[in-house]
Amino acid sequence: MKNPRDIIKRPVITERTSEFIEQLKYVFEVDLRANKTEIKLAIEAIFGVKVASVNTLRMPAKPRRYGRHNGYTSEWKKAIVQLAEGSKPLEFFEASV
Fold first, then answer.
1. Which of 29, 36, 85, 88 has the lowest tally of Cβ within 10 angstroms?
2. Are 9 and 30 contacting, i.e. CB atoms less than 8 angstroms apart?
C-alpha cells in the first residue's frame, strides 16, 4: 500500500468548503492516480476517524497567460470526504477566534 501522506496532498480551504464542515464533509487535494478506496484508507489512517463516503472529481487544466507566454495550470484531483456519524471533527479546520 502507498504511504497515506503521499495520497493526501493538502486540504482545500475555501469559503464553500468551510460550509461543508457543518455536514462533516472535508475537501482534500489528492494524488491523480488514487482511487476512492485508497483515499478512504489514507484519511482513516492519518486522522483516526471513520469515513462514510468519498466523492472524487478531476479539476481540468486551465489556460493562463504569464506576460506574453501562454500555458496551462496543472490538472489535479479533488476528494470530498464524508465522515461517519459520531466521528470527531478534524482539528486543522477549526477556526481559532
1. 85
2. yes
